[in-house]
Amino acid sequence: MLDYDEEAEAYDASRGGEPRAEAAAGAVLGLIPDPPGRLLDLACGTGIVTRRLAAARPGLRVTGADLSTAMARRAAHRLPGTVVRADCRRLPFADAAFDAVTCVWLLHLLSGPADVRAVIAECARVLTPGGVWVTTVDKAEAHDVGSDIDAVLVTRPRRPAQDAADAVTGYAAAEGLVPAGRAAFPGLGQGRSPRTTVMDLRRGWFTLLPPEGPRAEEFAARLARLPDQDRRRPDPVFSLRAFRKPPAA
Questions:
Q1: Nearest-CA neighbor of 178 among 126, 130, 119, 138?
Q2: Full pLDDT tens readout for the chain, 249 residues
Q3: 4-143+160-190+234-244, what's its fold?
Q4: How many whole angstroms separate alpha carbon 58 and alpha carbon 45?
Q5: What are phi and psi of 181, to 5 degrees?
Q6: pTM for the whole thing?
Q7: What is the dihedral of CA 90, 91, 97, 99, to 10 degrees?
Q8: Rounded to the nearest 5°, which phi and psi values hold at 239?
Q9: Where are the domains of the chain?
């Protein structure tokens, strides 16, 4: 698992920056009803997407929450007075406090199904009846774009996908949430090149390949033999799912 306090300073530049944030925010807002209300952006990171959610709909009151102190601090610079440090498994908010909850790139980071279920239960708890929860799903799968880099990495060890769409849908149903739409957006600027993939290996981004280990170096050597070392392969396309909390009877 990456240390997001350490990642905070370079996070935006290394993850597609403003173009990716614009694409993500637009897709998320397309799944959320337009009337003004309160929105909670969980795992808001640096607030680069959160700020766009707030700016796009001036009547929407947006709160950001992140567990990383450094990330929350950066988000607070973008959205003063509206960001809290919080564990998404135990949210410091009352029941039915928000009309929408968003989780962009959160569930795939969690350690196992129990944590995923805990986060989804909290999202359902803080939603008003009729409210909508929007989350990314299948993040790792989105990065497999059928490139020569993917062919090299196909045998790498992988963590079980905690954000698999079918599993998330099942956990949501257990909390009384029903499917309410889906969308996709490009991870602009996140297409891998062989050279950047080797750098990511050596930074520990592939969590089951310790950067100091012989297997990581084996993959790095194979990547270094690919052509066009600095040409980025296609950008990933990320998937969103929306779920609604049924109105009170």
A1: 130
A2: 555 545 545 555 555 567 888 999 999 999 999 887 999 999 998 888 999 999 999 889 999 999 989 888 989 999 999 999 999 999 999 999 999 999 998 999 899 999 999 999 999 999 999 999 999 999 999 999 999 999 999 999 998 999 999 999 999 999 999 999 999 999 988 899 999 999 999 988 888 899 888 999 999 999 999 999 999 999 999 999 999 999 976
A3: Rossmann fold (3.40.50)
A4: 21
A5: 135, 170
A6: 0.90
A7: -90
A8: -105, 140
A9: 4-143+160-190+234-244
Tokens of 57: 């709909």
Return the residue matching tokens 């950001």.
64
* Joined tokens for residue 159: 């963590």
N-to-C CA span, the chain: 42
Of how many residues is the chain composed?
249
Cα–Cα distance measured from residue 229 to residue 214, given in angstroms and rounded to the nearest whole number: 22
- 146 residue type, one letter: G
Nearest to 146 by CA among 209, 195, 191: 191
Tokens of 244: 């609604």
Token code pair at residue 77: 């610079």
